[in-house]
Amino acid sequence: MASVTFEKVTRRFASGGRPAVDSLDLDIEDGEFMVLLGPSGCGKSTCLRLLAGLEDVDSGSIHIGVRDVTHLPPRERDVAMVFQNYALYPHLSAADNIGFALRIARMPRKRARQRVQFAASVLDMEDYLGRRPRSLSGGEQQRVATGRALVRDPRAYLMDEPLSNLDARLRVETRAQIVRMQHHLGITTVYVTHDQTEAMSMGDRLAVLKDGVLQQVGRPREVFARPANTFVGGFIGSPAMNLFRLPLSAEGVRLGTLDVPLPRGVLRAATAERSARIVVGVRPEQFEVLPPQDRTTPALDLVVEAVEDTGAVVYVHASARSGEGLGDIVVRLPGRPTHTQGAPLRVALRPDDMHCFSAVTGLRLE
Ligand code: ATP
Fold it and tell me: What stretch or stretches form a coiled coil here (predicted)?
């Protein structure tokens, strides 16, 4: 087991172009499950490949434990990688696929068999060890691929979107299993995904990347509750946080017909930037939907444009009757859908439930 440290790591594919990974500093603790998260092309796979030694860094260094592995070939790094594409040997049984690397390493047969048995029990796949990949479901093949990494007892597991070929139900099942396995073994794991739900539910911590640049590192709850900038605010959470570019007033912001006071510090930081605007983020569940008979509570007057009923939760897309900087607004409705298209909707907002960002830099304002 070992910690993993990226120090000022940069990798540029095209000379003169934007780096795929730009001066990355990241400390992953021993035994931690770290998720690298971001949209397609943000550089997360490149980070993993740099760590595995499948790509060379242009500058910076990578340590696994106390060892500087920056210039070591992949086989000397002692990491095990699970890819999106399982690449199992079709002519070998699940057990032989799992034990293949052990055979190559000439591990005594009895010990190798014990290892395979152990991996099979951790991943709950003893029933199909004798079967070939073709007769296994996607989820089962995924477990065999994970088992193959597991038997090697590496210093770290590196996983690149290993669940992306599975259907929704299997994804949920398998991700719980990977987390259980990781907690059981306590081996440092770096897991790449673009799926924020997967990241939130699996990671001890998340590292959010955009355009090769690290945006925020933290526990899933922290990142959700206090996104460092508008990008993270909009990326984490589903449906996405509403982001409004609002005019500043003397004491706060003008949200349609509502004047919402802002904390002193935020107001001070916003005015120091000499911007007449501020970006306010509100999650769909942070609006308080007022009952129709309430005409006194100060509220934002909306009109329902569309109703989205997911079964468990109802969201409405609405527009403001008046107000600058307000576009499509998504609001989570409490309970069952009672609103229809064109219906009025009044929502209130507590200042504490607003996330405030600079209209100039996009950074969170304290
Ligand atoms: P995805 O989720 O789509 O896999 P990602 O976040 O993992 O994306 P990377 O695969 O790390 O992103 O790619 C980051 C950037 O580097 C992209 O712009 C990509 O086009 C570029 N890139 C990656 N590998 C190479 C390569 N071998 N040659 C040239 N450019 C590359």
Answer: none
CATH number at residue 153: 3.40.50.300
CA 85 to chain centre: 20
Work out the pLDDT band at 1, boundaries 50, 70, 90.
low
What pLDDT, on a 0 to 100 scale, did the predictor assign at position 75?
A: 87
Task: Evaluate if residue 315 carries a pLDDT over 80.
Answer: yes
Last residue of a domain, one of 235, 251, 282: 235
42 Cα nearest atom in ligand 1:
6
Residue 41 Cβ < 6 Å to ligand 1: yes
Give yes or no for a contact between 316 and 333, defined as CB atoms under 8 angstroms apart: yes
Task: Return the percentage of the chain with pLDDT > 70, whole number.
Answer: 99
Report the separation in Å between the CA atom of 62 and the middle of ligand 1, taken as the mean of its atom positions: 19
Residue 176: inside a domain: yes
| Domain-ending residue, one of 235, 259, 293 | 235
CA of 180 from ligand 1 middle (Å) equals 30
| Residue in 164, 191, 163 with CA at minimum distance from that of residue 37 | 191
313-326 average pLDDT score: 85
- pTM, full prediction: 0.90
CATH number, domain containing residue 348: 2.40.50.140
One domain, residues 305 and 344: yes
Indicate the number of domains in the chain: 2
Q: Kindly state if the Cβ of 51 falls inside 6 Å of ligand 1.
A: no
Which whole number is the average pLDDT over 31-47? 96
35 CA to middle of ligand 1, Å? 17
C-alpha dihedral sign at 50, 56, 58, 62? positive
Token pair 């199992």 is at which residue? 88
Indicate the SS3 state at residue 218.
strand
Q: Is 365 inside a domain boundary? A: no
Q: Within a domain: residue 86?
A: yes
The answer to whether the complex's ipTM is over 0.85 is yes
Strands, sheet with 79-82, edge to edge from the N-terminal-most edge strand: 79-82, 156-160, 188-193, 33-37, 205-210, 213-218
Same domain, residue pair 110 and 32: yes
Q: Whose CA is nearest to atom 20 of ligand 1?
A: 41
Residue-level pLDDT at 244: 93
Question: Is 119 within a domain?
Answer: yes
Pocket test for ligand 1, best of 10, 11, 13 (most atoms within 8 A of CB): 13
Q: Of all protein residues, whose CA lies closest to atom 11 belonging to ligand 1?
A: 43
* Tokens linked to 137: 């479901």
pLDDT over threshold 90, residue 276: no
Ligand 1 pocket residue status of 5, Cβ below 6 Å = no
